[in-house]
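User: My advisor, Dr. K., asked me to get a structural model of this assembly before our group meeting. I'm new to this, so sorry if the format is off. These are the inputs:
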Amino acid sequence: MAFYIVDRRLNPGSKSLENRQRFLRRAKALVQGAVKKSSQDRDIKDVLEGGEVSIPLDGMDEPRFRREGGTRDMVLPGNKKFIEGDILPRSGGGGGKQKDAGQGDSEDAFRFVLSRDEFVDLFLDDLELPDLAKRKLAEAESEGVQRAGYSTSGSPANISVSRTVSRALARRVALRRPRPEEIEKLEAELEEASEERRAELLAEIEALKAKAKRIPFIDPIDIRYRRFETVPKPVAQAVMFCLMDVSGSMSEHMKDLAKRFYMLLYVFLKRRYRHVEIVFIRHTDRAEEVDEDTFFHGPASGGTLVSSALQAMHDIVRARFRPADWNIYAAQASDGDNSFSDGEVAGRLLTDSILPVVQFFAYLEVGEAGGYSFEMPDSALWTLYERLRSGGAPLSMRKVSDRSEIFPVFHDLFQRRGKQEKAAI
Amino acid sequence: MTATAGRLFEGADWDFATLQRILEACETIARTELGLDVYPNQIEVITAEQMLDAYSSVGMPLFYKHWSFGKHFAYHEASYRKGLMGLAYEIVINSSPCISYLMEENTATMQALVIAHAAFGHNHFFKNNYLFKQWTDADGILDYLEFAKSYVAQCEERHGRLAVEHTLDAAHALMSHGVDRYPGKKKLDLRDEEKRAGKRRLYEEGTFNDLWRTVPAGRAKTSAVLNVERRRTLLGLPQENLLYFLEKTAPRLQAWQRELIRIVRHIAQYFYPQGQTKVMNEGTATYVHYRIMSRLHEQGRITDGNFLEFLQSHTNVVFQPEFDDPRFSGFNPYALGFAMMQDIERIVTTPEQEDREWFPDIAGTGDVMAVLRDVWANYRDESFIAQFLSPKLMRQLRLFHLHDDPEERAGITVDAIHNERGYRRIRRELARQYDVGYIDANIEVIDVDLAGDRRLMLRHTVVKGAQLNETDAKRVLQHLADLWSYDVSLVEVDTSDKVLKEYVLNPRALASAA
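Assistant: The format is fine. Below is the predicted structure of the whole assembly, which you can bring to the meeting.
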């Protein structure tokens, strides 16, 4: 009897994956539109979840010659009361009929499930990191070392003991080095042996001992060293500074807006860098570094001094994040209040110490719910930053007052574009 | 192995040794009791995802890459996840060795059912039915698919993914019109034609008789008419295999594009018999699994519980909802096929007077398997139904025939029901529903304007007033024009040659640039 049973479960061959990618590539524009639409009515937390999207089949169709209309004859099962010559009114006709009529259009739109990665990919696809002057630095490479097998020479510190011992063992076995137990056994026998046997044993022991001496336990040729190679390593880490005004004038709603923006930025950076750290700095009239929970929910009160936060950020950068090793991103959220005298200091701090070391600095001015962003009057901080920006400082700034504006604003900030910043809103 | 070699398995769990035992037990029954003749079997165990995958690339294990398969996968996956669709228990490939896929989620009973169904039922049908013998090459198909896959990949590397995709899209659109429907048509080639003309001339000279000149004949054809006829003969027109025609005669296709079209055409041809034998194929497989499973149960090799589990799946498979049932969506090929096979068994073993009148050849002959094997080898759905649908079964299914003429204001007429007057008409109509000549639109290449603008002219002969869907027809013709790279026209004519509609499409710039 000829047959084979094969287990194919282990080698899927990933055929579906490849075809799926082709399909997504082809439907990219459509899927992207659907992704944007579906992300609008989601929470930010869910953005990362992937999920079902529905796209129209236009352009994705596979046309065939198809006939319709005309006289139709059909044979159906399950006759109950009809007899030959009966005429059935069309409206409530045969059960199969209505289905047939709709069949051609049933595939006009179809829903399918995107995985989490696919979703985020498509969601962030038309975004990119701003192409600033410091971009070069972002791709600068540093040297790193990495294990690369074994070598016969090296520093004693790098001796690989396990490798060396196993090679020595193999060599001793191959050359039949006598084991100490064998010699001990013969010596024990020697104690009680008769005279002629004694001489024989002595000779044998002598021979074994000589052999053991000739074949060393560990020979220099057994020794192996761990080898290391230096490889160029791209800077693959980023730090994200979240600066927020937590003075009394910031409402819960405003903090929520800021939080949403920070989360998006985090997701975005996470896709570009292997390692992303977040530093939360909140400020009233003095600034402090806090953990996330305190940042968003901790009570605080006081006046407003933006320069204090900028100073804190500057100090932290100097202490912990060398600009050569880290890509630095900063996003500041505030309702725009700042004490009048602080403007000059903050401006100087920003242009002299902060902007030169960061890849990107975004300022998000949050407004009260129900207000419209374009109706918000220019605040003290906005005026200050606007002045800096028109003086050539690489700042991005937007106003937001409603949850639904966060996505568009974020997209707008990171849109691929030929030129630098367009005029703000 | 004796008939009572103990249980094949207990409960629902199985391992590879179980599959081995099931295969051996099924094979013994299939060969000795049913007299089946099968290709060697190859059983492959796969996951649900792989099953979905196989679904979307038309059930083939190795197929070239194309976005449309990804689309079908996404579509099937979505409905599978929602629970709208159960997966097929098996997929079987018409090849030698015959490959059957089993899903790992199936219980031991289901695996036995699937093995009996696919590895013996379908397998026997593939090996013995005349259509499959005529049109498919079971030994070569796996190698050919391997070739097609690597060839398409190579083309993508050399000519770009987009260009290949474009060609394949176009070829896929014409796939249903890329099969030869009749075997053995020899094509003309110029050298043979010349030789033949020479021979004919010699013959005419050798048998010259001046008297023939005086025999009155009809008016001679003008040279223009003769030219047209000659051209059409040389091009092999009319031609209904559009892909073949493009492959051989499209003026501006690259060699690799012709090869791609050829691949699509071969695959279409490979599936051609399957479309014509759905009822028979499934009927055969269902009948075979029913026989094998019942026999295993009689032999005590599967328990009563397992047999009940089998019966439940079996009845689900052969369930035929009635026309007014919300679940109704046409005839279930499993149900109709199985019912007819069982009916033949009844006619052969315990015929009634009516059966003796209708089926004098087989009624009461006694050897069920001999009759069935003959039927499985020599019929396709259309002829099978036209020949073997019995009045008893028509009564049992309560078949009736509706005639829907849009011109008729009053409504749809009931043309025939399951009574003495209606049997033959119902049987004829049902057979016609499975006639391959009626399933696809009759579209032919009729001419090419070689002297003028190289327009390719097609004709759709409209049957019973069913015209082409306009949007789709335009899209398909656009693809056709892209491949032909000159204008393409299609006229729809009714049987009295009255033109109902005309399409003209120009090729897109993209194709001619390629």
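One thing worth pointing out at the meeting: Residues 15-59+110-125 of chain A form one domain.

User: Perfect, thanks a lot.
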